[in-house]
């Protein structure tokens, strides 16, 4: 599971839909793998407006990536520093994959297991029903 995907996931428990603490999901016991892929600055520039920067920096910090700036970059690679940030984003979002571990909801504590890079979002019956 690429880290980019996590920025678009929230807890599937119905009681968590209205809680801001259900996003982002937090990793626990995450086994990371780096897979080199071609650098695509155009893709990064286009996806930046769709990213929740606070969630990205929270996830990055939890996984030990501490080089992201506090402010979301504008996506231009006009300066050397901007280009460096885009490359770091590429490494984090596109090349870093979680192959084993869990994602945990900050609201209800439900754990979503990740096995062989695939997260299991199926809920037990008692969590998926309307209350």
Q: How many DSSP-defined strands?
A: 4
Structural class, please? alpha+beta
In oligomeric terms, what are we looking at? single chain
Helix share bin:
25-40%
Percent of residues in β-strands: 15-25%
Helix count from the secondary structure assignment:
5
Strand arrangement within the widest β-sheet reads 1-2-3-4
The gyration radius over C-alpha positions equals 16 Å
What's the overall average pLDDT, rounded? Answer: 90
Gap between N and C termini, in Å?
Answer: 31 Å
Principal-axes geometry comes out as: globular
> Could you list the spans in which at least 5 consecutive residues all have pLDDT below 50?
none
Summarize the main sheet. 4 strands, antiparallel
Write down the secondary-structure element order: HEHHHEEEH
Give the SSE layout.
Blueprint: H1 3-6, E1 26-34, H2 41-47, H3 53-62, H4 80-95, E2 96-104, E3 111-115, E4 118-119, H5 125-128
Antiparallel strand pairs: 1-2, 2-3, 3-4
Could you characterize the architecture of this molecule?
It is a single chain. Helix content is 31%, strand content 19%. The protein has 131 residues and is an alpha+beta fold. The protein has a 4-stranded antiparallel sheet with strand order 1-2-3-4. The longest helix has 16 residues, at 80-95. The two termini are 31 Å apart.
